[in-house]
Amino acid sequence: MKPTADHNERIAKMTFASVYPHYITKVEKKDRTVQELLQVIEWLTGFNEKDLQNLIEEKATFETFFQKANLNPNAHLIKGVICGYRIEEIENKLTREVRYLDKLVDELAKGRKMEKILRT
Fold first, then answer.
1. Per-residue DSSP letters for 38-80?
2. The CA-based dihedral angle spanning residues 37, 46, 13, 103, taken in that order and rounded to the nearest 10 degrees
3. Sorted alphabetically, which Gene3D superfamilies does this protein's record hold (predicted)?
4. What is the CATH number of the domain that holds 59?
5. What radius of gyration, in Å, describes the C-alpha atoms of the chain?
6. How far apart are CA 52 and CA 76, in angstroms?
């Protein structure tokens, strides 16, 4: 499946604040912690908890979120299928970065070890 321009635009305009509570719910349902979620997000983006809170308060879109992020140089190692899309085949940079985050949250919720999630 290949993301359409409309799909990419919707992702770009979605706010991180609207998705973050769903990430928390997803990982907590599987007995993982918010601290682990924060660790995963910081590994990918460089944002600490205070940075995330500021982005939530300013209602940053994913476009702004990833423009401000310092993406981990090993992010390209995140592979697989998320939401029906093979991450490594997504051409749109922003959509691929959002799917990186989705994939990491999924791996955390599925009980994968942190060393594997953080590609160490």
1. HHHHHHHH---HHHHHHHHHTT-BHHHHHHH----TTGGG--S
2. -40
3. uncharacterized protein sp1917 domain
4. 1.10.8.290
5. 13
6. 22
pTM over 0.70: yes
Contact criterion met (CB below 8 Å) for 41 and 101: yes
Q: If DSSP codes are grouped into helix, strand and coil, which group holds residue 81?
A: strand
Residues of the chain with pLDDT below 70 are: 1-2
Query: What are the C-alpha distances in Å from 94 to residues 9, 55, 87?
Result: 10, 17, 11
Six token digits for residue 13: 């305009």
Domain range for 68: 5-112
- State the total domains in the chain: 1
Tokens of 90: 């997504």
Judge whether 89 lies within some domain.
yes
Per the structure block, which two tokens stand in for 88?
């490594």
In this prediction, what percent of the chain has a pLDDT beyond 90? Answer: 89
Q: What dihedral do alpha carbons 97, 100, 102, 105 form, nearest 10°?
A: -140
pLDDT value at residue 7: 84
